[in-house]
Amino acid sequence: MAITLERGMLHPNVSAGVLDHWTDRLKLAKQTILAGTGRGADFLGWLDPDKLAPKETLKALGDTAKKLRDTVDILVVVGIGGSYLGAKAGIEALATPENKARVLFAGQNISASYHSELLASLKNKRFALNVISKSGTTTEPAIAYRLLRALLIEQVGEEKAKELTVVTTDPENGALRSRAKQEGLTSFTIPGNVGGRFSVLTPVGLLPMAFAGIDIEAVVKGATDQAEALRNPDNQATCLAYAACRNALYSQGWGVETLAFFEPRLASLAEWWKQLFGESEGKDKCGLLPTSLLMTTDLHSLGQYVQDGKRQLFETFLWVDDMGVELQVPQSSDDRDGLSYLAGRSLAEINKQAWRGTQLAHREGGVPIMTLRIEKFNAHALGELFYFFESTCAISGTLLGVNPFDQPAVEGYKRNMFALLGKPGFEEEGERVRSRLEKYS
Ligand code: PA5
Questions:
Q1: CATH number of 45-214
Q2: Whole-model pTM?
Q3: 279 lines ligand 1 (CB under 6 A)
Q4: How far is CA 43 from CA 46, 164, 273, 328, in A?
Q5: Is 414 a residue of the active site?
Q6: Residues 335/300, Cβ–Cβ less than 8 Å
Q7: Count of CB atoms within 10 A of residue 171's CB?
Q8: pLDDT band at residue 1, thresholds of 50, 70 and 90?
C-alpha cells in the first residue's frame, strides 16, 4: 500500500484506546457501505472503479483524447463542483507544463471578467469543448457553454463545432443528453449511481486527464488496488484508521480539519478534497470544516494563527517523499545571503526539514497532527488517493449519521438566485425573496 498514516503526533489528544473505539465503530460503517444498506445507498457506483471504467471505456476515452489532441491545441473543460475539480486536481498534479497549458476551465463561476478573458484567449485558437454536467441543467456551465459554443461556431462553423464538442452527462436525462442525441455529439456517461463529487474516476475526470497526457489506466489501477484493500476483511484499511482519527478529534470538539501539503502541484487536489468532505459531511448541523494550507507559502500568512491562534483546528499533512523532480541550491562564492550551508543540497530535502520543523512547532503549539504519507507521486498514487479519500469520506459520513451522497443545501442559493433573476416558474418566489432580503438592508 502506497498511502500510510502516521499518527504519533495525535498524542496526547487521542489515545490508542480511543482510536480502537472509533475503528470498531467505523468497521461497522464500512460494512454498511459495502453491503449497500446505509443512507444514500443508490450512489455507491464509485465503490468499483474497474466497473466504472472498464477496458472498453478506457480505450474509448483514450481514442477520443488522442483525436482531440491531434485536432486542437486547447481543450476547454466546462463544469462546476464535482464536474471539474477532480480533473483539475489530476492535471495540475501530474501533467507536464505544456499539457497543463492545453487544458482550460470554464463554467466554474459566473464571472464576466473570467469568461471574457477566457474567450479573448481562445480567439483564433484551435480549441474543443468537453461539457460536463450530470444534471445537464446547472446554470454556471450552461452559461459558459453558450458563450463558448457561440465562439466556436463563429470560428469553425456549426458542423465542425459539433465535431469539436464532447459531452459528459447522465446516460438518459437532462438537457445535455438530449442535445447530444439531437446533434450527434460525441458523448460519455456519468452512471446514475455516481454523484458529482465521487465521479472523478468516470469520464468526468478521466477524459480531461487523458487529453492532458496522464496515464488513466494507471490512475484507475491505483483506485482498484485501494478498492481491493478496502474489501479485504483481513486488511486494516488505512482509510479506517484515518477516519478514526478524524472522528475521535471531532467528538472532542475539534471543528476544523486542515489538509496541509508542501507541493503547489497538489493545490487543486486539496480543493477537490474540500468539496468531497464539505458537501458530504456538512449537513444536519454536523461535520468538520475542511480547509487547506499550502506550505511553506501559508506559513507566512496563516502560520501565525495555526501556531498560536484559537485552538480549533487539527492538521492532516499530505506528505510526498518523492515528487520525481530534483533541484539543488547552487554554490556561490558570495555568502551574503547566508545560504552556503545549504549549497549543493536538494530543495526536496530542505522542504522535508521544513515539514518536520512545522509539524513539531504546531504540535508543541497544541495542534493535533497526523500525516498521510506517499512514497512516490505518480498516476497510480493519484488513483489511490482519489479512492482513499472517497472511501474515508463515505465511511466517515455514514458513521456521522448523514447521507454522504446528497447535497440538498446547495439548492438554497440556486432557488433565491432563480427567483431574483425571474426564471420561469419562480415569479412568485421573487417577491418573497426580495422582501426577505429587505429585512437585512
Ligand atoms: O457533488 C455534486 O454532486 C455537485 O458538486 C455537482 O458536481 C455540481 O453541483 C455540478 O453538478 P452537475 O454535474 O449536475 O452540473
A1: 3.40.50.10490
A2: 0.97
A3: yes
A4: 8, 31, 18, 47
A5: yes
A6: no
A7: 12
A8: low
